[in-house]
Design a protein that fits this description.
The protein is built from 14 helices and twelve strands. It is of the alpha+beta class and 387 residues long. Strand 5 and strand 6 form a beta hairpin. The chain is globular and about 60 Å long. 44% of the residues are buried. The longest helix has 20 residues. Bound molecules: 6-O-methyl-beta-D-galactopyranose. The site of 6-O-methyl-beta-D-galactopyranose has 10 residues, from helix 9.
Length: 387
């Protein structure tokens, strides 16, 4: 198997019964595996809620490591819409040309840096740096803050492996609390200050609400972006003709980004809590149990995608759910798409070839399913494009 191949562990269960089951800290999850069911369930917020106990819709559950409700992620309509409309314009800034210019400069610098090295460990030496530096643009904070975030590692709630790490989470919470206090005392034009000044139902957002948005911003787009970046680079390393194609047909770059998000599905699934006894795929789902919308499985559904297990760089119709679906679709998607697009452009422009030296896969253990989500580490050599 190629190193950049990501097998689909859900195929059999998806095709035979449509759902899978997993245990997660004694709070089991019924996983919806079909594209159609995932989309339908995502719409139905009354029966399948996001606004349960903070952390419960996340798999693995984070109920034991946080009390702060992530906003707008863990809120249901109609209130969800109020919050979302406050934060939405801020998260659309990556569409501005100046934002893209700054991002392009950051990414060009990182690629120049790794070209100077004999070899680079891509997860921490490239993807984590890229994600953290780019986050300074999204937050509109000084560039130097990224040094601190880089030191936190690839997941803000997990240390080595899959274990949830409460102490690590506290570092993030304390940092965010301190930043919010700082912004409250002397506001700037950063995200903390802008949120503190936002109006919600005729009042300002509280510090706890601002914290909820900030925790989501730090946690939600971290390992997901890092995996997307790393996996894309591993793919291009093993498929030099694809890198060549991006050089010759730059107009397909946007489609290739979407296709990579579909294929890699950086976020495997997201949970919902059932509010009343119901059925999913003819399987009884009791009130106060959990189901999940398994984006990774839906994205390989052969009923929707031809050749689902291949990266078709210019796939014409691509209704993937890699950024979720319905009202909770990924708030950071505009930022993530720009990162991926500029990354592919920069690699096409500057890299002649890559060599994968050694690697360790990151396999997510979902009880009956084992899913490759990326790499714990992957050492590579980057060779410049010589014209
Ligand atoms: C939550 C989640 C959001 C969660 C879109 O996903 O991402 C996870 O990585 C975090 O651990 O807290 O933010």
């Amino acid at each position: 198997m190629k190193k950049s191949e990501f097998p689909d562990p859900f195929e059999k269960a998806r095709e035979s019964k449509g759902y899978g089951e997993m245990n997660d800290q004694d709070d089991p999850v019924t996983m919806l595996l079909r594209h159609k069911d995932v989309r339908k369930t995502a719409h139905n917020y009354k029966t399948f809620q996001s606004g349960a106990a903070p952390g419960r819709i996340v798999i693995p559950s984070e109920v034991n490591i946080r009390d702060t409700r992530q906003i707008p992620f863990e809120v249901d309509p109609p209130v969800h819409k109020e919050y979302r409309s406050i934060v939405e314009p801020w998260f659309k800034r990556p569409l501005e040309p100046e934002y893209q210019e700054k991002l392009a400069k950051q990414i060009a610098n990182i690629i120049e840096e790794v070209l100077q090295e004999d070899s680079v460990e891509v997860v921490t030496g490239l993807a984590l740096k890229l994600q953290s530096r780019a986050l300074t643009l999204l937050l509109n904070t000084p560039f130097d803050e990224s040094e601190k975030w880089i030191s936190w590692g690839t997941h803000v709630f997990r240390s080595e492996g899959e274990a949830l790490d409460g102490d690590k989470a506290n570092i993030l919470y304390d940092y965010i609390d301190a930043q919010i206090d700082r912004a409250a005392k002397s506001p700037t034009d950063d995200m903390y200050s802008v949120l503190l000044d936002s109006e919600f139902e005729g009042r300002k957002l509280t510090k706890e609400e601002v914290k909820g948005v900030m925790v989501l911003t730090f946690a939600g787009g971290r390992d997901t972006v890092i995996n997307a970046v790393t996996n894309a680079i591993a793919y291009l390393a093993e498929n030099p003709e694809s890198l060549e194609r991006l050089r010759k047909e730059p107009e397909i770059t946007g489609k290739t980004v979407e296709e990579m998000i579909r294929y890699f599905s950086p976020l495997t699934q997201m949970g919902r809590v059932v509010t009343e006894d119901t059925f999913v795929c003819e399987h009884a789902a009791k009130a106060d149990t959990r189901v999940s919308l398994c984006w990774a499985s839906a994205n390989r559904d052969a009923a929707v995608f031809e050749n689902p297990n291949e990266i078709v760089m210019d796939r014409k119709i691509n209704p993937h759910v890699g950024f979720g679906f319905s009202h909770h679709n990924c708030l950071g998607a505009t930022h993530a798409r720009q990162i991926m697009k500029i990354l592919l452009q920069t690699l096409a422009e500057k890299i002649g070839s890559f060599e994968i030296l050694d690697y360790e896969e990151n396999i997510e253990d979902l009880h009956h399913f084992k899913r490759k989500v990326g790499f714990h580490s992957i050492n590579m050599k980057f060779n410049p494009l010589t014209k």
